[in-house]
Amino acid sequence: MLTLAELLSQAGFTISFVNNEQSHRRLDQAAFRRRCPGIEFLSIPDGLPPDHPRSGPSTVDLLFSVSTFSKPIFENLIASMSPPPACIISDGVMSFAIDVAAELGIPAITFRTYSATCTWTCFHLEKLIQDAEIPVLQGSDEDMNKLISCIPGLENIMRRRDLPHICRLDLENPVLKLYITQSSQMAKASALILNTFEELEASPSKSVLYVSFGSVIILTRDQFVEFWYGLVNSEKRFLWAIRPDLIWDVNGPSKVPEELTVGTRDRGRIVGWAPQEDVLAHDAIGGFLTNSTLESICAGKPMICWPVIADQQVNSRCVSEMWKVGLDMKDICERSTVEKLVRDLMDGGRKDIMKSTVEIGRLAQNSVSNIRHSPLMSLLELFTGRVYLC
User: Fold this and answer.
1) N or C, fewer C-beta in 10 Å, the chain?
2) How many CB atoms lie within 10 A of CB 301?
3) Is domain 45-194 annotated with CATH 3.30.70.20?
């Protein structure tokens, strides 16, 4: 945290560093002020007696005490500052600061010294309990080496013996409960700072299916539900852009089945809009369920075509049989078919599709880069006046 404060100070920010009184006294504040005169050191009591060690096994006492005792004091400190802070950055196990920030209308950022992978694992502690993966009890090598399947992105990596030490505690242990609470609270912050770097812990590539049906197509409620079930049942991660007028339902909105809500929470994300070209260009995207052909080709991403109008029927046949850059789901909207085609595309079993997609994507990029030498540009150069597009 001190290193982060120093970096921010050197970048031109004015920093107030708030600590508990015991740690505050131990800091060599003079040395930090010489290097970073923009840092102001402040302290608040943590509710523990002066002779409490606050380290080793006793660190737990500090966490519990600060969570309850220090919150109102911290809130009074922040409220008294003039001008008020532009942002509060709090330790990941000091989530009371997020609540204080919300009450005072100040953005909150959580700083976690864990790796991204460990933080992601802590986010799934409740899921691990639901799936009876914890508590981890010392057993045979076979038991301890069992792969954990309920943490997205780590299905074939994390074993039971690799889970954090708190996962070996009894489910009623207050320390485990504290970690669950603190981890879930982090999701309420405006942003998250992790002590890692992108290249070390980048997401698994080509693991997400992007779904979008453009700006014209309308789905019936039944079609919408079938697509949704197929996506959830495929057990693949997906990002679905659903514009407000996508669903046509003469009977009005109906309740979403609980299993779809739960399945989406685990592996999916539904948004009202997405920057399509940027999304398709991202390395995490492994496929596109769509009726927009050329954007997917230019991005070098294989697709599942669901044609509805105009040129889409012809294009979808070309995609599957001529260009071999995707699969055709023409005239079908049924959950088991959606599930099967999503699995076929995302599991990488169709090597011919992957090879063709890369090659045709390269050709598309070359074509765009050579547009200045195209016949169209040669034609337009014949005109000296303004060209109108209508």
Assistant:
1) C
2) 26
3) no
In sequence order, the 6+-apart residues with CB closer than 8 A to the CB of 266 are 127, 152
Nearest by Cα to 87 from 114, 110, 112: 110
Residues 6+ apart with CB under 8 A from 288: 209, 210, 211, 212, 280, 295, 296, 299, 301, 302, 303, 304, 326
**DSSP of 338-384:** HHHHHHHHHTT--HHHHHHHHHHHHHHHHHHHTGGGSHHHHHHTT--
Q: Round to whole Å and give the CA distance between 122 and 105.
A: 27
Q: Which of 103, 49, 41 minimizes the C-alpha distance to 71? A: 103
Q: Which two tokens stand for residue 118?
A: 């460990």
* Pairwise CA distance, residues 246 & 242, whole Å: 6
**Alpha-carbon span 238 to 266, nearest angstrom:** 10
Residue 237 · residue 152 · CB < 8 Å: yes
Whether the CB-CB separation of 276 and 241 falls below 8 Å is answered with yes
Q: Could you give the maximum distance between any two Cα atoms of the chain, in Å?
A: 87
**The amino acid at 211:** V
Is residue 89 within a helix (H) or strand (E), and if so which, with residue range? strand 88-91
Report the distance separating Cα 265 and Cα 366, nearest Å: 39
* Token code pair at residue 314: 């012809």
Return d(Cα 83, Cα 206) in angstroms, integer: 46
Mean of per-residue pLDDT scores for the chain: 86
Q: Which sequence spans correspond to the domains of the chain? A: 45-194, 208-371
Question: Which backbone phi and psi does 333 adopt, to 5 degrees?
Answer: -145, 80
Q: Which fold has domain 208-371?
A: Rossmann fold (3.40.50)
CA dist., res. 328 & res. 303, Å (int): 9
pLDDT digits (tens, 9 = 90+) for 255-280: 778 888 888 887 889 888 888 888 88
The answer to whether 162 and 173 are in contact (CB under 8 A) is no
**Whether residue 252 has pLDDT greater than 60:** no
Instruction: Note the pLDDT tens digit of each residue in 321-346.
Output: 888 888 988 888 899 999 999 998 88
